[in-house]
Each structure stands twice: as C-alpha cells, then as structure tokens.
Write a structure and sequence with these properties.
By secondary structure, this protein is α+β, with helices and mostly antiparallel strands. It has ten helices and twelve strands. It is 39% helix and 23% strand.
Length: 303
C-alpha cells in the first residue's frame, strides 16, 4: 500500500502513543516530544522542545550531577558506544515529585551508520490508576486526607491492627517507617504558611510512587507520614527507608517561581510477637527522634 510509505503516518502514530517518546540531537536538545510524554511528566511539548533534556526535565538519579560527567547516562552510552539500554529510573514530574519508569534508550543512525540522535521511550513502573483507586477508596470510607490525598491516620491505625493480627495468626512480617520533612517550621517562617501543603503534597506523591503496590502510605499526625511495608523484616526496613529518603530528596517543590528540595528523617521498626499498635509506633517514633537528633536526612531503626 503506497500510502503507508508516507513518513507522516508513522510520526502521527508516535505522537499519540500512551508510551512517552522523545528524540534528542547530538547536543542533547529535545527535537520531538509526544503526547504520552506530556501525560506522564506534565511537561507540554512547548515546555520541552528545543531545551536540553536534563534541564529540569527528565532529571535522572542525582539531579545535581552534570550529564557530561556521567559516562553511564543512557544517552551518553548511546552516542559513545551505539548502545541500547533498558533501565529502571525515576524522573521528575512538572509538579516536582518523582515517577518510577522503565526507560528504553536507542541510538538513531543515518545511512552511513553514524549515530545522529537518540530516541528514548518510557512507561510508568506503576499505574497512575493505582493512586486514583486508592483515593476513591479512602473517600468512600471517609478517611481521605484532603491536603495530601493519602489515607488519614484513622485508616492507618486500622491497617496496623489488621497487619498485627495477620502476623500473629499467619506469621506474615511487616515493617513500618515514620517519615517527616526536615526543617518544615523554617520553610513556614521564610516562605509563608501556604508552602507547607505544597511540600506535603509533593512528598506524599513521591512516597506513593516509590513504594510497592502492596505497601501502604498514609498520614500520621499533622506533618508526618507512615508507610506500612508488607513482608518486610526489620533488617530490611533501613534499605527501604534509604530508597524513600533518596526519592524525597530528589523531588523539587516550585513556589512563586523558585524551586527547592527537601530532606526527610525517618524512623523504622519491624513487628514483634508482643506488639500492639502503640508499641510498634512507639519504637518507630523513637527511631525517628534519633534520626532528627543526628541532623535529619537519615534513616534509623533502633533495636
């Protein structure tokens, strides 16, 4: 069929894919950005096309690290070695939180075989509909926190009781992380009280995105979050906490034209045979306090 030889047909297909697709030239400037990329990241093509890729766009890993200094960046590998890669990374949403994605990178070659550009495609590691379904469930139960969109403390307390029963009857382990934002009072004093809900929403979305679908995160007190980590023993809580801490630190909050990041102390605990909700949370709270006293931005699990 001759009409299928028209390159505009294939461009149109790429434009409307739900998978994010973009193309960069040898200068790392974005030359193509499809609708899927818009939907996943919140960045419209007019925000992106013509700009450098890592310039507040798909900041991968340590956003402060210069692209040229990272030889293992997938785009560098494609240009230098002609190498295709598939990696699990987190990227920056326009609203500031991080999104876990599967990123596929492929070199684009001209008729002589030289690499003249790079195409990258990405899909969420976790469906955005998971977040929407959970919010609907919390709303139906009357326990949706209106600021963060997470479960309210009352729901989390019920979940902890159910998990302790399952642990007692079936020996299904779980751990918890108690998380808060460093220096929130300073942000309130220097930027105004309105900045606090914005910070909490970005942190909440970052937490929801970086945990497994089987885990649960909700509010705990005014400025704290509680994560319930299923089938996670106490020895593994620090590892999960470090991943959470890193993801939060890579988020960016936009406030009146300024962009800044936050850090988070966290305290963890694993369930024990003699635990009640109060005892379990008390250990996590003691761990959190120890983290704060150590300067914050670290994870502590006291034995």
């Amino acid at each position: 069929m001759p009409e299928l030889n028209d390159p505009e047909i294939y461009r149109s297909v790429l434009e409307h894919l739900e998978t994010g697709v973009y193309i960069v030239d040898r200068n790392r400037r974005v030359r193509f950005w499809n609708e899927g990329a818009e939907q996943i990241t919140g960045f419209l093509r007019q925000d992106v096309v013509g700009r450098f890729l890592r310039e507040h766009l798909l900041a991968i890993g340590d956003a402060s690290k210069a692209l040229e200094s990272d030889p293992e960046d997938p785009i560098n590998l494609a240009f230098r070695d002609g190498k295709s890669t598939v990696v699990d990374v987190s990227i920056l949403h326009k609203s500031g939180y991080r999104i876990p994605v599967v990123l596929r990178t492929n070199p684009i070659r001209n008729s002589r075989g030289a690499v003249v550009g790079v195409a990258e495609s990405f899909e969420r590691n976790r469906s955005a509909s998971d977040w929407t379904r959970r919010q609907a469930m919390y709303a139906d139960f009357g326990c949706l926190d209106s600021v963060t969109g997470l479960a309210a403390q009352s729901f989390m307390e019920t979940q902890l009781r159910e998990n302790l029963i399952a642990f007692g009857e079936h020996n299904i382990p779980f751990g918890i992380l108690l998380i808060q934002v460093d220096h929130l009072d300073q942000f309130r004093a220097t930027r105004g009280p309105g900045v606090v809900p914005t910070i909490l929403r970005v942190v909440a979305q970052s937490l929801e995105n970086c945990l497994r679908p089987t885990d649960l995160v909700g509010c705990w007190g005014e400025n704290q979050f509680l994560a319930v980590l299923m089938e996670c023993r106490e020895s593994e809580v620090v590892r999960v906490g470090e991943r959470v801490r890193k993801i939060i630190s890579m988020a960016e909050i936009e406030w009146w034209g300024d962009r800044f990041s936050v850090t988070s102390p966290a305290g963890g605990a694993g369930c024990r045979a003699e635990d009640t909700v109060e005892l379990l949370v008390e250990r996590a709270a003691a761990s959190l306090q120890d983290s704060i006293e150590k300067g914050g931005n670290c994870v502590v699990v006291l034995s």
